[in-house]
Amino acid sequence: MQFETIGGFQVLFGVIARFWPVWLALAIVLSASFAYRKRLGLYGELFTNSVGIAGVTICFFWLFTAIFATVIAPFDPLSQVAVMKDALPGTVVPNTTDVYYFGGDKLARDVFSRMVYGSQIVLVIAPFATLFALMVGITLGLPAGYYGGRIDSFLSFLANLVLAFPVILLFYLLVTPEIRTLSFDSWFSRITGIGVSVPRGLAAFFFLFPIVFLCTLFWTRFKNRPDRLWFQLGLTILIGGWVYLGLVFSIDPLGLISIEPSTLNIFVAVVFASSPGVFRIVRGLVMDIKTRDYVAAAQTRGESPWYIMIWEILPNARGPLIVDACLRIGYTTILLGTLGYFGLGLAPESPDWGTAIKDASRLLRSFVHPALPPTIALMSFVLGLNLLADALREQSLKD
Amino acid sequence: MLAFIIRRLGTMVITMLCLTMVVFYMVNLEPNLKKLSISQLDMRSSDEHIEQWLVKNGFRENFFVRYGQWLGVMKRNPEINPATSKSELRYKACQQPNEPYYGGILQGDFGCSTKFKTTVEAKLWPALGATGILMFWVMVTMVPIALLVGIFAGMREGSRTDRGLSVASIATTATPEYVSGVIFTVIFASWLGWLNGSAASATSQGVNFYNFTLPVMTMAIYGIGYIARMTRASMVEVMTQQYIRTARLKGLSFSSVVIKHALRNALIAPFTVIMLQFPWLLTGVVIVETMFRYQGFGFTLVEAAGNNDIDLLLGCSLVSVFVVLFTQLISDIGYAYLNPRIRVQ
C-alpha cells in the first residue's frame, strides 16, 4: 500500500504549528515576566542570565504542553489506525488530512500525540511527589537537626536504611500488582470495609505529613491570636482531610478527588525513595543555621522550639531547598521513566515517556523513529529543570 | 580510627539485618508466594496443590524461624523421601544433607535459586564478576574524563570554556541511562553501524570494543556530569585561595600553579563523590544490563525480582546493600586520610 507522505520541512512546520497554544502562552508569560523582572524577586532575577532564561523557557514549554495537550495532539493517545503500524514520520493517514508527524508505533498509535499526552503524566506526578517528599523531609529533618541526640540518630538511621536500598529493588518490591491487591484484615478494614494494602498504608502515613506540617505552622505562629488560629487550623484540617480521604482511601464525600490505585502506588514509591534525601539536606542545613545569632535571640525571647524551627530556621534555609526541589523534580522524572522502562506500576498502554522508551527500545533494530520523541522530551524537560536549578543556585550565591 | 571503623562496621551489620528482614517480609507476602508457586508448578494447579507445595517447602513456618534459617541460626529440615529415606533436591535443583542442618548466610550458603535451578552462589558470583568487568571499564573511562572536564572548567571561573563545559555536564546529568542508551544505539548501531547494539555476545565470546563500547559509554555519560561539576566546584574554591595567589605572584606559570598547587587540594572532594557514585552506578547497571542484554548482576536482579526468586533476590539485595555501605565507609576513611584537617574522633 502506498502512503502519501510529507517532507521533513513540512513535518517541522506542522509540529511547530500544532504547538501554537504553547507559543502563545510562552510569549505572554515570558514577556510579562521579562518586563516586570525587577519586581518579581528571585523568579525575576532568573531573567538576568541566559542559563536562567533557557531553563524557565523549557520548563514552561512542557508545563503549557501538558495543560493544552488536548488541543495540541491531533489524535487520542490510545487510538489506533491499523494501517499506520510502524508508519514513517510524516505519513498522512489515508482518506484524511491528518498527519502522523513523528510516525506510528508498533500498535499503530501516533507517536507525536503520545509524547504530548505523556507530558501530562510526568508533570502531574513529578512535582507533587517532590512536594510531598519535601514535606516529609522537612517535618522530620527539622527536629533531627535542631534537637540532635537520640531523635537524630534514630531518624538518620532510618534515612540511611532507605538510602542504602538500591532504588530499582525498592521499586520491584513496592510497585507490583501483587502488592497493590494484597489487603490486610485489620480492625480498621473490619470497621470501614476498606482494605489496607502496603501502598495505601504508606500513603496514609506519608500524606499525613503536609497536614501535620501546616497545623504546626499555624499553631506556632498564631498561638496567641485564637480568632485567626482556629480559622486557619479548621481550614487546614477541613481541606487537608478532604484531600486526604479522597487520595488515600478514595472515599471523598463529594466524589471530586480520587486517584488510580496504580498511580497512588507509584506516587508512594517515589515519595518513599526521595524523602530521605530531603531529610539529609534539611538536617544539615538546620545544624548549620541553628548556631546563628538570630536563633539564639529567639531562644532568649523564650520562643518554642517548633516556632524557631519553622519561622526562624526554615525561611533561612529556603535558597538551597528551592534549588534542591528543582533538581529533585528532574530526578523524580528520571525515576518515573525508570519505572516505565521496567514496566512497573503504569499501565502497559500508558503514554508516559518511560513506557514509550521501553516499547520503542525493543524494536530499535527495525524502527528508530518511535524511540526518539519520548527520549528527547524526557531529556529536555530534565535539562530545563537542571538549568533552572543552576541559575537559581548562582542567584542565591550572589546574595 | 580503629574504634570508628568498628562502630561503622557494627552499624553496617545492623543495617543489613534490617534491610534483609524487610526484603524477606516483602517477598514472602501471600501474593508473591502464590506467584512463585504457580511458576514452580504450572498455571492450572489447584489451590490445594499450591498449598501443599508451600507447606512442603517450608513456606508455612513461622516468619522468624524462616528468617533464622536463612541467616543460619536455625536448623533447616530437609525434605526426606520416604521410599529411599534420603533427602530430596531442594526446589529439584540443590543438594541437601539427610539430617536437619544449619544452612544460611552465616554458613556461606546463600540458598537455592528457583528460577535458574541452581545454587545462588553458582549464579551470583559469575554475574558479579561480569558486572565487575563492566564497572572497571566504566570507571576507567568515566573518572579521568570527568576530572579533566572539571579541572578545565574550574581553572578559570566564568570563562567561555567554563560555561560551555558546565552546560555540557548539566546536559549529561539530565540524560539517564535509558535515554542515552537509546540515543547512542540509534546513532552508533542503527545509523552508522559501527558498534553492536547488544552486549549479549560479551558473556560467551569475551569483551571487545565492538560489543562493549555502547554499555560502557551509556553508563559513563550519566556519571561524568555529576563528578565533573563537583570537581569544578572544588577547583573554583581552591583557585580563590591565598596560596594560589601567592604562587602566581611569585612568578610561577599558570600551568605549574594548577598542576603543582591546585590539583592536589582540589581532588579531595571528588574522591568522596566518586566513591558515593557506586549506589547510583548500581541502578545504572540494572538499566544498562537489561537494555544491552549483558548477563551481569543487574540482569540477575531483574530476573530474580520478576520471578520472585526468593533466595536469589535476598542474595542480590545483600550484595548491593553491602556495596553501598562499604563504599560509604571507604569514602569516609579515605576523606579523613586525604584531608589532614579532618580527624575522626
How would you describe this protein?
The complex is a heterodimer of chains A (399) and B (345). By secondary structure, chain A is an all-alpha fold. Chain A has helices spanning 8-18, 20-35, 41-45, 50-67, 69-72, 111-147, 149-164, 167-174, 177-181, 187-192, 198-206, 208-221, 226-249, 261-289, 293-301, 305-316, 318-341, 353-361, 372-398, and strands at residues 91-92, 99-100. In chain A, strands 1-2 form a two-stranded antiparallel sheet. The longest helix of chain A is centred in the first third of the chain and has 37 residues, at 111-147. Chain A starts with 7 loop residues before the first helix and ends with a helix. The mean pLDDT of chain A is 84. In chain B, helix 5 packs across helix 9 (209-239) and helix 13 (297-306) packs antiparallel against helix 14. The mean pLDDT of chain B is 81. At the A-B interface, helix 7, helix 8, helix 9, helix 17 and helix 18 of A face helix 1, helix 2, helix 6, helix 7 and helix 12 of B.
Q: Which structural class matches the secondary elements of chain B? A: mainly alpha
What profile does the largest beta sheet of chain A have? 2 strands, antiparallel
- How are strands sequenced across the largest beta sheet of chain B? 1-2
Helix and strand element order of chain B: HHHHEEEEHHHHHHHHHH
- Spatial order of the strands in the main sheet of chain A? 1-2
Uncertain regions spanning at least 5 consecutive residues of chain A: none
The dominant shape of chain A is globular
Gross morphology of chain B? elongated
Helix content of chain B: over 70%
C-alpha Rg of chain B (nearest Å) = 25 Å
Distance between the termini of chain A: 65 Å
Terminal residue distance of chain B: 7 Å
Mean pLDDT of chain A: 84
Q: How many strand segments of chain A? A: 2
The overall average pLDDT of chain B, rounded, is 81
Biggest chain contact: A-B, 45 and 51 residues
**SSE order of chain A, as H and E?**
HHHHHEEHHHHHHHHHHHHHH
Based on the structure, what is the oligomeric state of the protein chains? heterodimer
Number of strands of chain B: 4
Query: What Rg of chain A is obtained from the alpha carbons, in whole angstroms?
Result: 24 Å
